[in-house]
Amino acid sequence: MSLRLIDLSQEIFQGMSVFPMHQNTFIMTNMTHEENMQATGSKSLGFSARNLLISEHGGTHCDGVWEYKPSGQTIDKMPIDYFWGSAICIDLSHISPTKYIEPKDLEEALKNSGQTIYQGDIVLLYTGHYDRYFNTDKWQTTYSGLSYASATWLAKQGVVNIGVDAPAIDHPDDLNFSGHLVCGEYDITNTENLCNLDKVVNQRFLFFGLPLKIRDGSGSPIRAVALVEK
Ligand SMILES: N[C@@H](CC(=O)c1ccccc1NC=O)C(=O)O
């Protein structure tokens, strides 16, 4: 079997767009090659590395339930199987950012995909937001999101990780943060700031978006990929 990786991750760099109220990303040089050679006295080789100051929710990342529910599990304690496994991506790109994603939209998108949701699946929502608004002033403000009913619909199908190509699974107007609220009710995870979902839409594939093993972490940046048959 011939396999191919599709990168679903955004780049990490100083100046990257970050969800409101989270830490902005700063990247500092710890030591240059020259400084290190001077420090060790080596005439042949020195190492250079940088220091990252980044939010646990910077760029493409997954959330531990503890982030928004103090009794929930932190990212290091959540089942690792929630972060990789069999996944599908469904097409919701026709839904206006002024609207919520509703259960009927999920049902229709699932039917159109020709796929089925199984217990333990990861479901990625292709909203088209990354393609339309990444690198614009609408990126952090103008996207669709799950209603309480549609998030519950996914959780009830046994979905363990809801991914999206937008800054959040919630609608930006939704002060109940319904997507997260439901993830907290079912103790499941969510993955935000994905990209390239157009390349996997309507397919079943293996998804990997493993968090760093951050002790007591509220979440973690990930390298999200889809493993597909060529
Ligand atoms: N996407 C956000 C989480 C988020 O949007 C959120 C989660 C729970 C309760 C409120 C939230 N948003 C706050 O503006 C994050 O990655 O931290």
Automatic annotation (TrEMBL):
GO biological process, one term: L-tryptophan catabolic process to kynurenine
InterPro entries: KFase/CYL, KFase_sf
Organism this protein belongs to: Marinisporobacter balticus
Molecular function GO labels: arylformamidase activity
Protein name (Swiss-Prot/TrEMBL): Kynurenine formamidase
Alphabetized SUPFAM superfamilies for the sequence: Putative cyclase
